Amino acid sequence: MIEFQNVKKRYESKKQTVEALKGIDLIVEKGDIFGVVGYSGAGKSTLIRLVNLLERPSEGEILVNGKALTSLKPKDLRAEKKKIGMIFQHFNLLNSKTVFDNVAMPLILSGTPVKEIQTRVNELLEFVGLLGKAKNYPEQLSGGQKQRIGIARALATNPSILLCDEATSALDPQTTSAVLQLLKKVNQEYNITILLITHEMSVIREICNKVAVMEGGRIVEQGPVFDVFAKPQTEIAQNFVRTVIHDEIPKSFKSQAAGNPIIWKINFIGANSGKPLLSTVAKQFDVDLNVLSANISEIQETPFGNLIIEVTGEESEIKKAYDYIQAENILVQEVRIHE
Amino acid sequence: MNNTLWGMEITAEQLLTGFGDTLYMVALSLLFSVVIGLPLGILLVITRNGHILENKWVFNVLNPVINILRSVPFIILLVALIPFTRFVVGTAIGTNAAIVPLIFYAAPYIARLVENSLLEVDKGIIEAAEAMGATTWQIIFRFLIPEGLSSLVLTFTTATIGLVGASAMAGAVGAGGVGDLALSYGYQRFDTMTMIVTVAALVVIVQLLQSTGNIVSKKIRRR
């Protein structure tokens, strides 16, 4: 669907050369909602702009639907671009045109007959739930509504891919959630592959099935969203995961704890999270369990919980309890306040 | 002293003719200046670094040429262009002859103003157009100009008012017009009343132009 093959991008000026992308390999498959997450300056913005050649790669190849866009003639390239929709952080709607005309624009550019435009635009406005705003101007709309119009416009030419460039970064949390649900609907109802970039891990958690973490022009970690959330490998991925899943030992406990208590971090994944683990352990073994922090969230509609408990008791009993949990196929890890 | 008005040395007919001449000169030179200046202004925008038709050569030639033309004082342009004007119009004297230097004066001015107006258009909108697979022409006529139109209207208003001012000096080549009356009667013959009336007339013209421009621009903006 979208394939990056060792793609590099350099920005050259007289004074210096900045390497924004240092060799990107990435495959986005049909039907994916693929999220690229990274701090600003990581190169994710450059990455998404390379897909529809808003920027050209310095090296490497990008295949979109099996075609290398860089080798196409301008006319063929424009035709291919019509199969790739794009939405933007600041919406980029024409302020001088009505909502209707904004959505109609891609169709007007392709010379679509007026009647067809009428039907298609109304269909799209209904899909994004803004049929009543057809005659309004973008300035009369809220940020969330503007992004819905952006989505409608991006879908006008029936693309197979939708690129989302920080599409929710200018929106408040509630509106963000609504727009993300709309994107999910786009993915499911029209079977459109989505590539999005964001600096918010919550966006990834909410709609993506795959994620790539970027840092310094490289992809440092990628995989199914669930795997990256459950076992982030790199430090930066761990930091991102921590922004939505809090698995730190509470500060108040740290400061008051006497000695160096034994603390377990337990991750429940999927069906495991339904088991009454703690009470079983407390009954079977002579240990006391003190819950310091617990939360369960859903990633990809699979429950994902983590629990931080303080364990006290005889060393041998603690070891037995630990082995029991591990045997249950539950991720447990011993941590100490003082290393 | 037949037909004089309010004690002026000029007749009402002279004043009316003056109005007519000014209108004629400004309208015609504006038309040609826009025809020349608008495309140049658009070129200045789209050929600059990072824009849709990036072209160092075109930009680096056009940019200083416009600056040079803009730095020549109009009265000197008027005289310097006499041979060229004679070649184009057939004469270097009169209202038609004044139109040529007026175009040389206003076209680069308009090019620069158009450039400024169109640079105000959000780059994101151009990016969206490129992402949609729009052609260069489509980007100019469907995105750049409609988005900059409100600002362009104000630009043309400014240019028109500039032309009204410049046309007053065109009296130097016998072009006539309200400004010429103010200079040759009001200023050179110390006819205070003519001075007051003609200047007041110019003030009214400029005010009308500016208000119209503002209203039209606002209407386009629809905000």
From TrEMBL, chain A:
Keyword terms, alphabetized: Amino-acid transport, ATP-binding, Cell membrane, Membrane, Nucleotide-binding, Translocase, Transport
Record-level GO cellular component terms: plasma membrane
Gene Ontology biological-process annotations: amino acid transport
Pfam families in the cross-refs: ABC_tran, NIL
Translocase listed as a keyword: yes
Gene3D superfamilies in the record: 3.30.70.260, P-loop containing nucleotide triphosphate hydrolases
Superkingdom, taxonomy of origin: Bacteria
Domain annotation ABC transporter: ranges: 2-241
GO MF: ATP binding; ATP hydrolysis activity
Family according to the record: Belongs to the ABC transporter superfamily.
PANTHER family: AMINO ACID IMPORT ATP-BINDING PROTEIN, METHIONINE IMPORT ATP-BINDING PROTEIN METN
Protein name per the record: Phosphate ABC transporter ATP-binding protein
Organism taxonomic ancestry: Bacteria, Bacillati, Bacillota, Bacilli, Bacillales
